[in-house]
Design a protein that fits this description.
single chain; about 150 residues; alpha+beta; Nuclear Transport Factor 2, Chain: A; 6-stranded mixed β-sheet; elongated; disordered N terminus
Length: about 150
């Protein structure tokens, strides 16, 4: 996992916040992960599913997987534009793969994901999640071929 070790400037701090949030949410410990989220956080999960808080993500993942974790390959912090910097916003992408078990106990790995975060004044205000799970579920059901 790419971990940011120093978080003194806002961009570096934003990357550290996202990595720590992900570490906690994968335990899963959504209550502790909530320390890094704004009260009005907006989450859009795969399939355009709106969610309001980290516990919603944990609940959804429990319905889709027996368990799931992220293998973080990169954490990309986007240099904020002057306008974003003035608003205190930084965009962070987490890129990697998912691994875990489907509900029937069948293991999986290599399921690509990209998460996009907006961090404002030290808190995550927006989280967008994309991954290949829906495609993999269709393949498992015999409705698609990879």
């Amino acid at each position: 996992m790419n971990t940011v070790t120093s978080h003194t400037d806002p961009s570096t701090q934003a990357g550290w916040i996202v990595n720590e949030f992900l570490r906690l949410i994968m335990i899963p410990d959504p209550q502790s992960a909530s320390r890094y989220t704004a009260p009005d956080m907006k989450i859009i999960f795969t399939g355009k599913r709106p969610m309001r808080e980290p516990a919603d993500c944990t609940k959804f993942n429990a319905s889709r997987y027996k368990w799931v974790k992220k293998s973080i390959e990169r954490t990309d912090v986007v240099i904020p534009s002057a306008q974003e910097a003035a608003l205190g916003e930084t965009v962070v992408y987490s890129i990697g793969t998912l691994y875990g078990e489907w509900p029937d106990g069948q293991p999986f790995e290599g399921n690509r994901y990209v998460d996009r975060y907006v961090v404002k004044n030290g808190l995550i205000t927006q989280m967008d999640v994309w991954n290949d799970s829906a495609e993999w579920i269709l393949v498992r059901a015999g409705m698609a071929v990879l």
